[in-house]
Amino acid sequence: MKKNIKVLHWTPRIICILVILLISLFAFDSFVPSLSFWQQIGAFHIHLIPSFVLLAFLIIAWKWELIGGIIFTIIGIAFSPFIFLHNFRMNHSFWMSIGIIMMITVPFIIVGILFIVSHLEKRKQSSPPDIG
Asked: Quick one: which of 79, 75, 74, 65 has its CA closest to 11?
């Protein structure tokens, strides 16, 4: 595999893992002193569900880059308005809400596009040259 293909192969995977870890950090909000230990553990696991779903999509993308790329691109685009509106209602700041979108959903759009580009480049490299 050529160096640029290797970089294109690993970049979306590494970015996706890092963004999933970032999203997983939000699960620590479930630890509050008013809940019992087991309630906190239960709430923590419930807050990790989005990370588990994203991890499942990453596994799909790892095997089938085109499908995974489409999934991640759709996730990033589809969730952007919801996350923006939710954060805008909480903080009433347009720019802070845009910053949150840039941090949470835009990386998934980038990951999706990179998975698709990686798939297309590998396909182009493996196809026989046109003689004509």
From this structure: 65
What tokens does 19 get? 């963004």
Closest CA to 15 of 130, 85, 111: 111
Q: What is the pLDDT of residues 35-49, one digit of tens each?
A: 899 999 999 999 999
Q: Which spans in the chain are helix H?
A: 3-25, 37-47, 49-63, 65-91, 94-104, 106-126
CB-based burial of residue 38 (10 Å sphere; 0-12 exposed, 13-18 middle, 19+ buried)? exposed
Q: Please state, in angstroms and rounded to a whole number, the distance separating the CA atoms of residues 35 and 100.
A: 28
* Residue 53 contacts residue 66 (beta carbons within 8 Å): no
pTM of structure: 0.86
Taking the alpha carbons at both ends of the chain, their separation in whole angstroms is 26
